[in-house]
Amino acid sequence: MTTTTLTNAELLSASGRDLGKSEWxxxxxxxxxxxxxxxEDRQWIHVDPARAAEGPFGTTIAHGFLTLSxxxxxxxxxxxxxxxxxGVNYGLDKVRxxxxxxxxxxxxxxxxxxxxxxxxxxxxxxxxxxxxxIRGVERPALVGELVLLSYSG
Length: 153
Description:
This protein is of the alpha+beta class. Helices cover about 25% and strands about 40% of the residues. The chain has six helices and eight strands, in the order βαββαααααβββββ. Strand 6 and strand 7 (about 125-135) form a beta hairpin. The model has no long low-confidence stretch (mean pLDDT about 95).
């Protein structure tokens, strides 16, 4: 894994730039259980290993939103804006949960800059294409676009 370091000015001309892939992280049951508690989403497919063993995936699976919530952490491994004084997660577009993440699986982020534009308020709005991969599985767990705002100075 190599972190791509860009300034905001460089980010403006980075359309189509591959940012690479993050490190793999393992999604274990305590992380899933903690997410379930914090979000009050305690559906059995996530938190009941015995029942989930009899379910469609044969094990518990991570919440789609848990997978999504890990994206900022994983993105920080592949992109650093060196002159950023304030960064904002502005939103998401076209996010789809395309494959379940079974407990114990390893995931990583693949990212590329789709486009960036200068805003009137001085910020740079950047769309980053994201794909959360599951080790050993062809179809990703999640795909979409992350919209970021970056300010410098």
